[in-house]
Amino acid sequence: MFSKLLLSLSILFISLLLACNDDGYSINPFSSSSSITNPTPKDYLQNDNADIFLLDGYVYSNAQDVEWVTELEYEVGDQIGEITKQADKASQFNNETANRLPIGTKIFETNTPAYIAIVNGEEILYLKMVEG
Prior knowledge:
The protein is globular and about 80 Å long. It has helices at residues 2-19, 41-45, 67-70; strands spanning 52-55, 58-62, 76-82, 85-86, 97-98, 106-110, 114-119, 122-129. By secondary structure, the chain is of the alpha+beta class.
């Protein structure tokens, strides 16, 4: 009788330890949690219409067709980068790489969630793609 009680308490204790593990590396084989990461160029370049650039580890995607973005009233702020390389394969992307924007395109922040790329005097809207 005592051994059955001890076995039950041990199982209960181990179950509580597994359930309380929240360090992001669950040892519970039945856990369905997964880590959330920001999108990568590979996530977008599968689409032939993708218009992206990579800056400081974040992908920025063209938002010219996003209604709420085009309705923003924004002020262009500081320059945050410049396109220094063009690539069409995700493996070739690194900081300041774009698949459509020409080399030399300057990227600016705004007072909104939108970012601006200026090409031949035209302001093109982009959004930073983050998960969370």
